[in-house]
Amino acid sequence: MTTKTIHGNSQFQKPTSLRWTWESPGGEYQNEIDHIIVNRWSCLSDVGVVLMFYTGSDHRLLRARFFFSRKGEKAAMFKRSPKPVINWDLFTSLAGFWEDAVVDNIDEEYDQLVQHLRDSAKSAEGSRITKGRQSYETLELIRQRGAARAAGNYQLTSEFAKRGRAFAAPAETSPIARPR
Questions:
Q1: How far apart are CA 95 and CA 121, in angstroms?
Q2: 8 A C-beta contact, residue 123 and residue 90
Q3: How far is CA 45 from the centre of its chain?
Q4: pLDDT (tens digit, 9 = 90+) per residue, 112-156?
Q5: Rounded (5°) CA angle 78-79-83
Q6: 10 Å Cβ neighbour count for 141?
Q7: pLDDT tier at 168 (50, 70, 90 boundaries)?
Q8: Do 92 and 117 form a contact (C-beta atoms < 8 A)?
């Protein structure tokens, strides 16, 4: 299973004497057993051990500095994942394949039914395809222009570029008025 987490202690290497967070009762062994784990490397700016702080235990305090931008956190809060589209006809046909078996335990039969319905829903689920910003024709012209450029035919390249600009909306091609 991939969790996409980052071990913060290994991102910021310190000398060995500044990394250990636990000491054995005799002071014989010192290990790094406390960790900072994050899911985005960009939010962590430093990890270290607080040296001059007595906690009353055999552990030393571990500190981390984080950086969060208000703009990025707000964008992440409002980011929506695409809702799945369910093909209900396919779902009903898959759910119709349920065979009612004679089982002594009603709880076991219920669990089997729920599992069958979940499997049917997963099979009938499709992802919503987001519409691209460029039309198919524009993308095809871009591909052809790239092939012409790779072949060294610059006259054909400029011709494809002119055709691509013709596909653009008039509002996009209007000149920008600059203040003087």
A1: 8
A2: yes
A3: 21
A4: 888 888 888 888 887 555 566 777 788 888 888 888 888 888 898
A5: 120
A6: 21
A7: low
A8: no
**Which residue's entry shows tokens 């990394």?**
19
For the chain, domain boundaries: 6-75, 85-126, 136-172
pTM of the model: 0.34
Q: Which residues lie closer than 8 Å to 44 by C-beta, 6 or more apart?
A: 6, 8, 11, 36, 38, 64, 65, 66, 67
Q: What 3-state DSSP class applies to 49?
A: strand
Instruction: At 24, list the tokens.
Output: 């054995």
Average pLDDT over the chain reads 77
User: Is pLDDT at 53 greater than 60 in this prediction?
Assistant: yes
What whole-number distance in Å separates Cα of residue 94 and Cα of residue 87? 11
Q: Which two tokens stand for residue 12?
A: 């910021």
Of 54, 21, 24, 46, nearest in space to 35 by CA: 21
- For residue 60, the tally of other CB atoms under 10 A from its CB is 21
Contacting residues for 164 by C-beta, under 8 A, at least 6 apart: 138, 141, 142, 145
